[in-house]
Amino acid sequence: MPPCKAAPFLSSVPCRRLYRKPPQPPCLNRSYSKWRTFASPSSTSSPYQTPKSHAHFSLSQLPTAQPLTLTPAKRKEDAVFTYDISLPTVALLHDAFRAHDRRKAWFIYKRLWRLQTPLHPDDHSTILAYLSGHTIPALGLAHAAHVVENMQNEGWELDERDYLSLMILHMRNGDARRVAELGEEMRAKGVYPNARIWALLIVAYGKSGIADVVWNKWKQCLEELPGVEADWEVRAVTVEYLGRGGDVRRAQQLVEEVVDAFARSKGEKGVVDIRLYEALIQAYGVNGRLKDAVQIFNVLKTERPSFGEEGGIGLQTYDAIIEAYEAAGDVEGAETAWNELEALCIKHSRPPPKQYDHFLPDSVPLPQTYNRIMALQAERGNYDRVQQLFDQRNQHALPLDVDMHRHLVRAYLNGNKPQEAADAYDRMVARGFMPDWRTIRDVVRTRPSETVAKIPQ
What is the reported pTM? Predict the structure, then answer.
C-alpha cells in the first residue's frame, strides 16, 4: 500500500490514495455548464457582510482558450534531444527527479509509460508539476492529459497538488473557465482547495470582470479555510481583481483592515506585506485613478527603498505602476518608470566575469512588464522600440509567450509596415503560438492573395 501524500496543512482532508478505485474517464475531458455552490459551514466571527449572490453568473462568462487549430510551419532546424537509455527504470526516473532534470525525467517517464510500468502516484504528480512550467502551455496541457489518464488507468485519484498543477497550466493558457471547472470538480470529489488553489480560483473568477463574484469567492474562502485571511497572496489577488471589477471601495477595505490591525500592534506584527500595496496600485490604475496609484508608489519608494530585498520594492512593484500608466495611456510615465527599473536591475546585478566583453544583468524586469511597455508602444506604431524590447527580452532568455509576438505584429501593422507584420506573424505561428482572431484578420488583410498560415474555418 503506498504511503499517504496528503499535505500536512490539510490534516482534515482524508488521504485519497489509501485505496485504488476503478478507472475513470480523464478529468480534462469533463465540463460543467453551471456554477454550482456547495454547502459549507458558516462563520460567526467574520466581520464581512455576505453580499447577494450574482444570480445570472455562470462559468460560460469566464474566458476560455481560443478554439484555433493552426499548423505551424516546419522549422528549418529540428532540434532532437534524446538520451541513450536502453532500459528505463523507476530508479532512473527518481535520479532525474533528484537532479532536477525535467527533460530527462519526461523522457524516461514516456518510456516507462509505453512499457506500461506501474508508478507511484507521487511520480505522476512530480511530472505534472514539471509540466505546469512548460514553455508552451498548450503543449504542456496535451502532455498533462496523458499523465492524468495514466493515473486514472492505474486507479489513482488526483489530489490538491495535481489539481494545482493543472490549474496553473490552464491559467497560463488563458483558460479561466477550465480552472473554475476544475475547482468545482475537485470539491465534488471531496478534495478541498488549499490557499494556493484559492488564489488561482479567485484570479479565474476575477477574469469575469464582476466584482460581486470575486467578493463571494473571498467570502467562501474565509468560511472554508480558517486563517486564510492572514495569507498575503489570497488577500492581494482579491484586492487586485476587486479593482479590476470596478469595486475600489471593497479593495480599499481589505487593505485598510490589515493596515489598521498593524497600526494597533505598534510594530509587533512587523510590516504590511508589499503585495497588498502593489495590488491596490493596480486597482487604482485600472480604474483611472493614476494620481492615487503614483502617490502610493512614491511612498513605497521612500519608505521601502531596499530594492529586491524582503519587504522592499521590487520587480512586481514597478510592474504595478507601469500597468497603471498603461491603463492611462501615459507612454512617457511608463518609459520613465521602465528606465528607472532597468537602472535598478543593473545596479543590483553581479559584475560580469572578466572573459565576457558584454554585460547582461542577472536581475531583469518581469515578462509581463515587457509586454506592458510593448503594448503601449505598439498602439502608437513605434515598431522600432517594440522590436528593441522584443530582442532585449530574448537576450535575457525570458520565456516566450503569445503576447510579445502579438504586440510586435500590432506595432508593424500600426506603423504601416504590412510585410514586416506578416513576417512577424509567420515566425509567431512557426514557434507554436496561436494568435487571436483579431491578429489573424488584420494580417490576412495585408496579404489577401497569399496564405499567411492555415487559417481555421
Answer: 0.77
